[in-house]
């Protein structure tokens, strides 16, 4: 039996940052995640991918961001149940919830925050007759380590941010990068589209549009892809084919917990605290939905912050919380003298 104040389901960036915000409020946390390591999609799908919209970082690697978040919460000593999936949620009484994993681990908490990202997910695969024959033999659905493609020929298919970003990144890693998209227009960031066009003009990326991969060829491993463009087919020799068509998200067992669901996302009250229709159960990050929702990491951080304030009130009914800025109190200064902390800040400024 594992008991905690706040049980967080999902160890992605939003879930990890929630531990920090909870720690500032002296709320004890425990995290459940189906993956064998913290970090969620950042660690599992694209640990080397650069992220450009984290405040204060012009660019930060996904894996580096996870490491920084883990370092940030280390002082609060959260517990982890990894490589296990939360299967059931039961309200024991007015105070406690019980969550049991697929391996039978029982967790009890006074509040539950679902920070499961896209939930369980799998890549959207192109419809190709012999695709499965080349999986892990030249067909890769994720770029976990760019060095795997060092000095290799790579064909990427897709028109979103992942396809654009990895084409740009691998242009300086692979010996040859070919980006294939079925339309002339891309769905990704305009800046990324401009960078791809610039690299194409420099001869660092082969851009083929509008076109599609229609066949894979090779004896035991991938050796070439067949590209169809304007009715004509051409074989392009390659070492790797990376179709980046996004992920198919699934809520899994969470969908059976009695939560209000809309289009595979959990409906929350964003006007207050990101609570679900079950009092004491919250949903933050990509897994939730509300009017105007944006699936950005920084939005998840904001949601986690407000959620923790609500959990504090739930755990301490009637107790007034006075917001203290960490620039004044420090992370470990919440039990100390605020006046002494203020003096220290003034002295440093002087």
pLDDT averaged over residues: 89
Provide the CATH architecture of the largest domain.
3-Layer(bba) Sandwich
Instruction: Kindly provide the radius of gyration, computed on alpha-carbon positions and rounded to a whole number of angstroms.
Output: 23 Å
**How many distinct beta strands?**
21
Order of helices and strands: EHEHEEHEEEEEEHEHEEEEEEEEEEHHH
Number of distinct helices = 8
**Which class of the largest domain in CATH terms?**
Alpha Beta
What's the end-to-end separation, in Å? 52 Å
CATH fold type of the largest domain: FAD/NAD(P)-binding domain
Sketch the major β-sheet.
7 strands, mixed
Strand content: 25-35%
Could you name the CATH homologous superfamily of the largest domain?
FAD/NAD(P)-binding domain
Helix content: 10-25%
Give the overall silhouette: elongated
